[in-house]
């Protein structure tokens, strides 16, 4: 590792929604990362540099490619680095050089598989339906291994498909691979999920719970929450009561972005009212930013944080935010984005920092399934290291 010199070849390939870069070290080690993109972004996220010209409907990234090949390359090519903290983009190459995987080479000492939150019905800006809320997730709460939790999710997802088929609901999918039926009612959606959990042979609440990502910033206007699918216009207090009613009727253990990022008082209110009953997750409100999280902790906002590395822009800052959250007993959920790639870095990150939870979509679409498959491989490797390997990994296929 001492002699590592970045030779550099940073290749940035442009894809319509994502940016990918490759980095080579002098010893031949290699790291590659691709960055996803969101549809329901927080206003304080790191800049996503696009060309805004005629190519790719303005989404091209030639400016970013030029920045890396000219400005960044000049800074780093030929220099020596020892650790990822010295040069962030180095993380994967340095792991490869040490003959390790990313989850082994960075993060905490304790490495554990995260609990998956699987998004099986998509709404909001992730689907062309009338559902106000963006994500309806199932969360196994009783299971022996990550592989088993994943099997439970897959069985429920496919049971849901049969139920929807019988009801003549469309089983086409949304951005994160969950179904996107033409319904607008939150209740109808939650009932479908409850039925799927039971019909698949699991006990709702006891074995499998429900989590929501409301992404409420998307329908907040003039200090009101305009829920058109629900035919309701609510203020912050009424939103709180709406959630309170939902959690008494359904086994909901977690709600993400229940309030808009522009409704700070609403966030305080919901944390006071429901923070001791369920997990309240800040995504758009914190944007993985340690300074914003620090203020949120002081102000009593939420009790968990969604972690999306590209919201803050570097791995080092992402780790700072995770450690700050963990130190203050905030739960951490490592997350994908709605516009994903085949990159599986977040699977490694979740295990590396022992995040406890991961949110990486449904049990369909290769851009989601690849993260789950990587976690199966990691679990197998950790079990093998402990000498407890007891099952053969069966990889998830797209269908
Ligand atoms: P985004 O959605 O990637 O479109 O921002 C994911 C989320 O809100 O959690
Ligand atoms: Zn979110």
Give a description of the structure.
By secondary structure, the chain is α/β, with parallel strands linked by helices. Helices cover 36% and strands 17% of the residues. It has twelve helices and 14 strands. The chain has helices spanning 62-76, 91-97, 102-105, 146-166, 186-199, 236-249, 264-274, 290-299, 309-312, 315-327, 345-352, 366-386; strands at residues 11-14, 19-24, 30-35, 115-122, 135-140, 208-213, 220-221, 224-227, 232-234, 252-256, 279-282, 304-307, 331-335, 356-359. The strands form three sheets. The chain has an eight-stranded mixed barrel, surrounded by six helices. The protein is globular. The relative contact order is 0.14. 2-phosphoglycolic acid is lined by residues 38-41, 213, 215, 283, 306, 335, 337-338.
Helix-strand layout with pairing:
Layout (H helix, E strand, L loop, with lengths): L10 E4 L4 E6 L5 E6 L26 H15 L14 H7 L4 H4 L9 E8 L12 E6 L5 H21 L19 H14 L8 E6 L6 E2 L2 E4 L4 E3 L1 H14 L2 E5 L7 H11 L4 E4 L7 H10 L4 E4 L1 H4 L2 H13 L3 E5 L9 H8 L3 E4 L6 H21 L13
Parallel strand pairs: 4-14, 6-10, 10-11, 11-12, 12-13, 13-14
Antiparallel strand pairs: 1-2, 2-3, 4-5, 5-6, 7-8, 8-9
Bound molecules: 2-phosphoglycolic acid and zinc ion.
The site of zinc ion has 6 residues, from loops.
Query: What would the average pLDDT be, to the nearest integer?
Result: 92
Low-confidence stretches: 1-17, 389-395
Residues in β-strands, percent: 15-25%
Number of strands: 14
Helix content: 25-40%
- Terminal residue distance: 42 Å
Walk across the major sheet and give the strand order. 4-5-6-10-11-12-13-14
Spatial shape: globular
Q: Report the radius of gyration as a whole number of Å.
A: 21 Å
The major pleated sheet works out as: 8 strands, mixed, barrel
Compute the number of helices. 12
Cofactor: Mg(2+)
Domain Enolase C-terminal TIM barrel: 110-387
Pathway: Carbohydrate degradation; glycolysis; pyruvate from D-glyceraldehyde 3-phosphate: step 4/5
Keywords: Glycolysis, Lyase, Magnesium, Signal
């Amino acid at each position: 590792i001492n002699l590592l010199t970045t030779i550099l070849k940073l290749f940035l390939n442009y894809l319509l929604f994502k940016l990918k870069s490759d980095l080579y070290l002098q010893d031949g080690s290699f790291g590659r990362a691709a960055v996803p993109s969101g549809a329901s972004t927080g206003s304080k996220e790191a800049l996503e540099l696009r060309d805004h010209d005629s190519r790719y409907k303005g989404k091209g990234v030639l400016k970013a490619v030029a920045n890396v090949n000219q400005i960044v390359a000049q800074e780093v090519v030929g220099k020596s680095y020892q650790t990822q903290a010295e040069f962030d983009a180095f993380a994967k190459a340095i792991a490869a050089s040490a003959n390790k995987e990313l989850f082994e080479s960075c993060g905490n000492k304790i490495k554990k598989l995260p609990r998956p939150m699987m998004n099986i019905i998509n709404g909001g800006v992730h689907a062309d339906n009338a559902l106000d809320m963006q994500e309806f997730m199932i969360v196994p709460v009783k299971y022996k291994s990550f592989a088993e939790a994943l099997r439970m999710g897959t069985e429920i997802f496919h049971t849901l498909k049969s139920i929807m088929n019988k009801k003549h609901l469309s089983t086409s999918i949304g951005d994160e691979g969950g179904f996107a039926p033409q319904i607008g009612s939150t209740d109808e959606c939650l009932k479908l999920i409850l039925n799927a959990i039971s019909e698949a042979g699991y006990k709702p609440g006891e074995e499998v719970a429900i989590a929501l990502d409301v992404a409420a910033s998307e329908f907040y206007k003039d200090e009101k929450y305009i829920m058109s699918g629900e035919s309701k216009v609510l203020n912050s207090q009424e939103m709180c009561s709406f959630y309170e009613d939902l959690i008494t009727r359904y086994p909901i253990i977690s709600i993400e972005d229940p309030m808009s990022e522009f409704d700070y008082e609403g966030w305080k209110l919901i944390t006071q009212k429901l923070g001791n009953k369920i997990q309240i997750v800040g995504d758009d409100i914190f944007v993985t930013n340690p300074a914003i999280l620090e203020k949120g902790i002081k102000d009593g906002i939420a009790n968990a944080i969604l972690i999306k590395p590209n919201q803050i822009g570097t791995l080092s800052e992402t780790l700072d935010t995770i450690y700050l959250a963990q130190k203050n007993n905030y739960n951490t959920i490592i997350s994908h984005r709605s516009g994903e790639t085949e990159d599986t870095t977040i699977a490694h990150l979740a295990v590396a920092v022992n995040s406890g939870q991961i949110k990486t979509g449904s049990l369909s679409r290769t851009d989601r399934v690849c993260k789950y498959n990587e976690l199966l491989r990691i679990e197998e490797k950790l079990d093998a290291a402990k000498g407890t390997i007891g099952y053969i990994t069966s990889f998830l296929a797209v269908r």
